[in-house]
Structure formats: structure tokens, C-alpha cells
Amino acid sequence: MNINKTTFFLLSLLFTVQAVFAQNYDESKVGSYQLPELLVTESGETISTTEQWEKIRRPEILKLFEDNVYGQVPKDFDDIQFEITKHDKKAMGGKTTLKEVAVTVTRNQKSVTMNLIVFTPNKAKKPVPMFLVINHRGLKTMDVTRQNKDGFWSAEEVIDAGYGISGFDVIDVSPDDKVKFKNGILEQLYPEQLQMENGMRGLGAWGWGASRAIDYFENDKSVDATKIISVGHSRGGKSSLWFGAQDKRVAITISNESGNSGAALSRRIFGETVERITKNFPYWFCPNYQKFAGKEDELPVDQHMLLALIAPRAVYVASAAEDLWADPKGQYLALTEAQPAFSLYGIKNCLPTEMPAVNQQVICPHMSFHNREGKHNMTPYDWQQFIQFANKYFSVL
């Protein structure tokens, strides 16, 4: 049978649409599952103290995520330099100081430069806490002229609240593309990672870039580098969690609608799955992760363990009610299942058993959650909740 190109395209589109709608969005169809034990080591030892957690179980879980999901993130480089390429003390109509910083990292005589955008409020009398956004939506989203004001990056609202806001385009470290992701630090600085089944890929590279931003903040007297708030949406939210789990300089880690392989429990098989995400975006994860496509129950980890790695620092999980692809309930359940790690530090478990109602923010010590109305995006409403949580968290530190 002969099939012309148009017919072939339409059939392919039909099969794709059918596959997407074949994903489970029915809570009654979520089967039974058993999560890996958070506080039991691979050798069967029960963890009951912070010392055991820090020395045994936490490193063990971190390594499991490195080897099976995100890949290792190299820490070594030969040199790092910061150059302020733009300095405007009267940005946003005089409310802020804008710095554009070229962060250049050198390893084995090769260099990569990441451009960091930083706004700090001029009214501040002391170094300010800093929101750091892992941005995969392009530079226009963070328009320094502020002619384009995108709710995804609510800079004015953050500044008015007394915080700094910053961000970098992930294209500078690893482009968000199946082929071009190698451009940047993977080919230039860490080519050996591309040969490893547990080597760093896109999400890890973006987190690596966020760590280099903190390196700069530690040298900027206008920023309180002990109060860095990592923010990421969707794929950026996945990277934010992995970054926050690894880099203990992050005070608050925010995941906005990060879904599968982010904050949502993989074993629920609700919305996006490991099979779907590793097929569509294999370059986000280490090659080993593809082995668990359709075999979530064989994973040695699940996402509650990623959230637990952030303890005793703060974590915020945000969802949207219409974003079933990202599984809002699975994200909330992961947060509640992470509580035992926080309890080791004397942090009270206070998240309600049932997921909060739409547009109802729940704040517990070191943990927060909301599920706003609407679709997959990061909006001014989300930013308002992030600011409210940061205000409460930093006020009691």
C-alpha cells in the first residue's frame, strides 16, 4: 500500500495524540505501589539520627540519583572569573541596581562563559536574599530593559518585597535541545561525562550553572549569599530540585510544576511517566535512566527521596490544578513522604494528610505547598506565594 507524505504525517500525528491521551489522568486507576524506604539503608540499617542521615543514608541516596537518574555533577575546574559587563544603578525607574555578570569558568585550558542577570533593590540597607531562576524560556523573559514584563519572572514584585532577583539562560551552559545540549560545558569542560552511563546531562548542567552563580554571589557585597532561593519551573523545576539537593548553599529550593522526575512520585504512573520523559527528553538525564522506562517499580529511588535530600533546609513545591501532566497530587504526596528526613532535625511534621484545596497555601516549618488554579506556567500568583514563604522562613532563622 502506498502512503503519501501528507497521509503519513497525519497518521503519525494521530498516533502521537493517542499516545498522549493514553496517559493516565484518572486517580481511580492509580494502582498500589511501594516506595523505597527513606530511612533504611541499602544494607538494611534503620536511620534514626541526623549523624546517621548525614554520614550514611544521605550520601547513599545522592549517589543513587547520580547513577540512575540525573548523572553525576563534577565539581572541579581550574579557574573562575567574574566580569561585570553592565552596571546600572538606576534600573527599573531608579528602584534597583542592575548588574550583568560574565561568569567564565576554565578547565583544561578551555573556557565557557555564562551570563548572569542580577537586580538588587536600592532601598536595601544590608545584603539581600536572592531569588535565582534557572531560566529555559530565553533572555526576553528576563528583559533587563523591563519593556517586556513577563509574569514568569516577576522582577518588580520581588524587588518591591525587598529581595534580589537573578537568572541565567540555560543555553549558556547546555542548550535545551536533543542535539545541541552538548554545546557548552559538556563538550568544552567535561567531555568525559558524555562517555559515562551515569554522566552529567542537561538538568545537571543547568544546576552546575546555578552553583557558579552562587560562587559569584559570595563575592557580591549587595547579596546575602546565605539566603539563596533557587527557582525553576517545569524542566527548570526538576533542575532546581537536583541543584538544591546537592548544593547546601541553597537556603530555599522552589520547584514549580516540575512533575515527573521532579517533585512527583514516579511510581504513581499518573500523567507523564519515566517512559514518556526519557523518550522525549533523553538528554536531560543520564543514559542509565532509560533502563527504568515502564519499570518504575525497579527504580532504587523515588522523588520523595530527592526532596528529603534538601533537609534541613527549606523546600517549596508548587502545582497547578489543570496541569495533570505534572501530577499535582503526586507532587504533594512526595513532599509529605519526605517529612521523616526533616523530622530527624526536630522539624515538625505538619502537612495535612489530604492535599490542600486549590489556591490554598500550606506553610510548615521548612516546607510549603500550593496548587493554584490554572495551567502549566509560573505566574505572579506563584511568586506571591514564594515571597510569603521566604518572608516567614527567613524571619525565624
Q: What would you say the CATH architecture is?
A: 3-Layer(aba) Sandwich
Mean pLDDT: 94
Let me know the number of strands.
10
Largest sheet: 10 strands, mixed
The total domain count is: 1
Q: Reading side by side through the largest sheet, how are the strands ordered?
A: 1-2-3-5-4-6-7-8-10-9
Listing every helix as H and every strand as E from the N terminus to the C terminus, the arrangement reads HHEHEEEHEHHEHEHHEHHEEH
Report helical residue fraction.
25-40%
Proportion of residues in extended strands: 15-25%
CATH class identity: Alpha Beta
Provide a count of the helices. 12
Protein name: 4-O-methyl-glucuronoyl methylesterase-like domain-containing protein
Signal peptide: 1-22
Keywords: Hydrolase, Serine esterase, Signal
InterPro entries: AB_hydrolase_fold, GCE-like_dom
What does this structure look like?
It is a single chain. The protein has one domain: 3-Layer(aba) Sandwich (Rossmann fold), CATH 3.40.50.1820. Residues 13-21 have low confidence and may be disordered. It is an alpha/beta fold. Helix 6 crosses helix 7 (235-246). The protein is 31% helix and 21% strand. The protein contains twelve helices and ten strands. Helix 4 links the parallel strand 4 (128-135) and strand 5 (164-169). Strands 1-2-3-5-4-6-7-8-10-9 form a ten-stranded mixed beta sheet, with helices on both faces. It has helices at 5-21, 50-70, 91-94, 155-160, 185-188, 202-217, 235-246, 274-280, 303-308, 328-337, 339-343, 380-395, and strands at 79-90, 96-107, 110-121, 128-135, 164-169, 223-233, 250-256, 314-320, 362-364, 367-372. Residues 1-22 form the signal peptide. Residues 103-345 form the 4-O-methyl-glucuronoyl methylesterase-like domain. This is 4-O-methyl-glucuronoyl methylesterase-like domain-containing protein. InterPro entries: AB_hydrolase_fold, GCE-like_dom. Keywords: Hydrolase, Serine esterase, Signal.
